[in-house]
Structure formats: structure tokens, C-alpha cells
Amino acid sequence: MNLALNKYLDVHPEVAEALRQKAPIVALESTIITHGMPYPQNVETARALEAIVRAEGATPATIALLDGRIKVGLQSEELEGLGKAGTAVQKCSRRDLPLLLASRQAGATTVAATMIVAQWAGIPFFATGGIGGVHRGGQDSLDISADLQELAQTSVAVVCAGAKSILDLERTLEYLETHGVPVIAFGSDEFPAFYTRHSGLGVDYRAEEAAEIAKILRVKWDLGLRGGALIANPIPEAYSMEPGAIEAVIDQALREAEQQNIRGKALTPFLLARVEALTEGNSLAANIQLVYHNARLAAQIARAFFLP
Ligand code: PSU
Ligand code: MN
Fold first, then answer.
1. Annotated catalytic sites, by residue?
2. Is 284 in the pocket of ligand 1 (CB under 6 A)?
3. Which residue of 119, 142, 147, 265 pairs with 132 in a disulfide if CB–CB is 3.0 to 4.6 A?
């Protein structure tokens, strides 16, 4: 770790111990808690995620900004506080990190910011639900999530269930290809679309085992090829949703965003909240299950990487 960063970083003792032992750790983001799910399911899910990572023999490290400090691993009350505050907490991506820290504001880290902090702390594996990407119409608006740029430059592997089709998935994959980010689908030939296992878009690499993925990452980073990788883990069949039903809801959410002129960092949270409300919470159950599934896989990859 860059020692100057110690000034800002509070590593939870359990995480610090795992780092000392070179034991597997899984980073977890906090925007999913504040902006991705309602209270109290957000806190319940965040706690269950930590338990799943532990059950797989790894240490969880949920990342957030609190009291002018970057927290790597949260206390139970800190997690509860973030979940209760919800969208009152600032969403924190790369560009927000210095401002929120300098002004001692709480911040919920996105995939991009969580990757940055995980790299500082020395944690190369991270599990979440879905990443940000190229928004529909992004070729004109240039609304492309900073998550993609982060995957290009920060050496942390992100396990997700693909991305929601609120985004332009085809352009999202093109962007990742241009920036040299390997996209590996776990047990599938297709890039999954979050609520559904299928997007109709292929990936170039398919892996069947966590150890295979750990090996690819070991080689990538041994070679000095900086940057992350996207491990796309399709939602379990039992929880996957009807593609037709979800598409109609997404179309409506996108129309509403346009009518209300929602832009910038507010767009993704708005779309997530509308999709959830319009499916009357059906999508929340799927969302929770897929995150659990991703945490399990991330822990297995981290174990294979650190305890080969
Ligand atoms: N997509 C989801 N759930 C989420 C997010 C995206 O299905 O919770 C969150 C993640 O924290 C992601 C962020 O990093 O939104 C992307 O926001 P933006 O598009 O503004 O970069
Ligand atoms: Mn954006």
C-alpha cells in the first residue's frame, strides 16, 4: 500500500489481520446499500453478504467513507447507519473521493471508488450486483459510467451478474474490449443481463471453475497488465426473471427519466429505484439473490488465488 494513504484509510482489524496473513478477502461496495436497495433489506443483505463471504473462508471488507475517513471493513452500527440514511448519503465515484473526504461527508462508494480503495488496501477481489456501463444513447450523451474506465486501469477483479439492460450492453462490452478488460462469463457463453441469464451477447471467455479464473488473473497481473477483469456470473436459474416483463419496466423507467430530465450521477439511482417500484419489489428478491451468488463466487476465486 502507498503509505501516504494511511492518513486517510481505516482498515478494520479483521481485514488488517487477513492482509497480514495473505488470506483471501472480498471487497464489497456501499452504493448498493444506500442507492441500490431500500431499508431494511439493504442492511440485511449487506450483513448476509458478509456472512456468505465468511462461510466460504474469506474475510469481507465493505468499503465506505465516514467521518472524513475511508473505511475498509465496517462495524455493524456503521453499516446500519448507512443503510438507514440511504440516498441521503452521497454517492461516491472516483471524482467524488477527494471532495467528500476533504469535507468529511459520508460517501457510498460505487464500483469505481470501491475498486480504487480495494487496490489501495491490497484487496484484488470485489463482489457486487451489477456494474455501471454505457447508458442507452451514450454515443450522444457520453454518459458512460466511470466504472468502465476504472476496470481499465485498476487491478481489481469485479464479480457481477452482468449489467442491467437500463444500459446499452452491446456498447458496454465494446468499451471494455477497447480498454483491454477481460470479460469472463462463469458457466455461460453469454454476457448475463442482471435479472436474466441471457442478453443475446456473447463473451469471448467462459470459465467453469473459480480456480481457472484465479489463474487467469494471476497471469494477467504477473505480466504487469494493469487493470481489472469482469467476472460475469449469471443469476441462478431459480431466481431469474421473465425478460419480456423486465424490458417493459425498464422502458418505462427510461421514459420517465427523460421526461423528468434526470441526468449525471442521479440517473442510475433513479432508474434502479423506478425498476424496483414498478416490479413491486419482485426485482428486489432477484437482486438480493444474485448478489449472494456473486459474493460466493468472489470468495471462491479469492481462495483459489491466495491458497492455491
Ligand atoms: N447497477 C445496479 N446496481 C447498483 C449500481 C449499478 O444494478 O447499485 C450502482 C453501483 O454502485 C455502480 C453505480 O457502480 O451504480 C454506477 O453509477 P454510475 O452509472 O453513475 O456510474
Ligand atoms: Mn453517468
1. 29, 164
2. no
3. 147
Domain that includes residue 235, residue range: 131-308
Set of cell numbers at residue 37: 436497495
The ligand whose atoms approach the alpha carbon of 133 most closely is 1
Q: Report which DSSP code applies to 107.
A: E
String of b and e for 6-21 (b: at least 16 CB within 10 Å)? eeebbbbeebbebbee
Tens of pLDDT, residue by residue over 144-190, are: 999 999 999 999 999 999 999 999 999 999 999 999 999 999 999 99
Give the per-residue pLDDT at 308: 82
> Based on the domain organization, do 54 and 5 belong to the same domain?
yes
**CA 31 to centroid of ligand 1, rounded, Å:** 7
Query: pLDDT value at position 282?
Result: 85
Claim to verify: residue 96 and residue 137 sit in the same structural domain: no
Considering the domain architecture, whether residues 228 and 255 belong to the same structural domain is answered as: yes
CB 135 within 8 A of CB 267: yes
Cell of 157: 477483479
Pocket flag, ligand 1, residue 235 (CB < 6 Å): no
**Atom number in ligand 1 closest to CA 37:** 8
- List phi, psi (to 5°) of 188: -155, 155
Contacts of 237 (CB under 8 A, 6+ apart): 197
